[in-house]
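Subject: complex prediction, re-run

Hi both,

The earlier run crashed halfway through, so I resubmitted it with identical inputs.
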Amino acid sequence: MNEVNQNPTTPLQLLLAWGFVGIPLIWGVFQTLLNALQLFQ
Amino acid sequence: METETGGGGSWFSRSRTVARPGYSRWMVPPAALCVHLCIGQAYAYSVFNLPMTKLIGITESAPDDWKLTELGWIFSLAIFFLGVSSAVFGRWVEEGGPRKAMFTAALCWAGGFLISAFGVYIHNLWVIYLGYGVLGGIALGIGYISPVSTLIKWFPDRPGMATGMAIMGFGGGAFIASPLSVWLMKKFTTETHIGVMETFVILGVVYFAFMVVGSIIVRVPAPGWKPEGYVEPVQSTKLITRNDVFVYDALKTPQFWLIWWVLCLNVTAGIGVLGQASAMSQEMFPGLITPVAAAGLVGLMSLFNMGGRFAWASTSDFIGRKNTYFVFMVLGFILYCLVPYTGAVGSIAGFVLCFCIIISMYGGGFATVPAYLRDMFGTRYVGAIHGLLLTAWSAAGIFGPVLVNYIREYNVNHGVPKAEAYNTTMYIMAGLLVIGFICNFFVKAVDKRYHMKKETEADTALATAARSARA
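This time it finished cleanly. Structure:
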């Protein structure tokens, strides 16, 4: 019964979940960083 | 991935979001980020302002086009309704669970964009006030507080870090929204049309999908769950309670109002310079900081705003919440006093450094406060109490810019050179932080008479939640 109720999170699920939010965020940070570099030019 | 959990009630009910054994708590921060990254778009709303002043004239504003001052109300309304809705719906969010709240926020957020798109189509500004301002503002309030208490319950060992991660997303949302909106508008703009309406529609649909994913993967821990190896302190420490305070009882405590003022003053000081950084830097360093470099400074400050949310909130897990706010107030005071000096000696590096640290503490103030409330009032109603506290943000949203703008104008009108016009403001901001320091100093543990009787009121609240789930 316990085995039926257990449904452990897999590393792939974690990777997908973090990638789903992480990729757009990193892209946005990169774009902002490019913009911020103008301060030093 | 698990999609079903035990217990009755609809898919949205709290009971259906209880995690099964084996569910990783590290799935919850991305669920929270799904919501916060989307509603963080609010910080980038200004990218629509200029194009929306030329919807009829296309190349330049026509007499029937909207004015910038009229458009400014859209953002102000949204922030006002953020405060109102988080205060009004806080208890409902807490008792209904994160999934229902996140889904509702997704509906309101997407609905706000779609209604606004219709408003652009028929060129009626009131429809946009209603769409983005009212409905979008409600989404901001519900969405902002929706994952807070869930994260605190999943990370009792690192509550600051957990909420810092989510609230960092709110700061980071603008990074995605700003370039994305500009790109979309460019894509749909022709010689006879500006692509604001299409951009609103696409953003509404994309944000809805993103936020729904968050509501699907979010889970609340099972009653009595603790992280592996975590030993809960047997007794409350001086400033970390093990008791819960009912949401409306929290309003009767001096602690709530002291923290309200601490947040309000910290945000007032930060928001005042955040909105004016571009103009201020150019006027303080005429000829040295160009408009392009000033835009770079704003970008750099937003990075520190986002990073500060995670860094300061995580630090608060080690040095304590009260000490973290002491750092904000003392360090902030020193830096605000230093800004005029950097202008006087022409040190751009010093000026940039001061502003970046100040803004990191502005973000840090937002991100640390949920854990501060948890320490004071317990975890049971922390989301709802946080919702009530966010009215401090709405108030600061008015105080901050008004202080900076009016004092600058007064100085310029009285013959003060533009480069020195902000000095008085900086000293006033430093003064506000002294008041914040005093408020923080008086925060002590909540009196026992406000604590909930664990076996009765908590059960009643759960029974209410169960009843609403069955309905």
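The CA atoms of residues 2 and 22 of chain B lie 10 Å apart.

- K.
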